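User: Please predict the structure of the protein below. I'd like the answer in structure-token form so I can feed it into my own downstream comparison script.

Assistant: Understood. Taking the following sequence of 143 residues as input:
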Amino acid sequence: MPRTEAQTQRWPGAALALCGWPALAATALPDGWPLRWIPVLLFVTFGPGCALLLPLPRARQLGPAARIEVVALAAPLSLSLATLAATALFLVEGFSVTVFLASLAAFCTVAAPLPAVPLPAATRGAAERAKPASGKHAPGTGL
């Protein structure tokens, strides 16, 4: 049975909602193993930002500028959220790696099903696609 569009759009959201929990589980591995720190590093660097920025509606129809914008903003946004979480945990004297990763994983679980943050390039691209293709250029553009 072929999948509907709604079913195929749920998978990226579900993957983003659950992406932090394997990173938290990886902390149970012995110290120094790459299978321990690689998932944690990737999750902290990209997980929360991607949960806020993706899945974008109609992601297949977005232009290259919007896709580049998502990639460019995911890491700084994730690292900013991780810094805020770590600072808050230090201020309440409750910081541990487990609590830190659990709070970020819970944030991703809550944020992933919500609508994505609107991006300027995605909005501009949608507006540019909506213009009629009459072959005439917009006045004042010089094109």
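That's the full token string. The CA atoms of residues 64 and 121 lie 9 Å apart.
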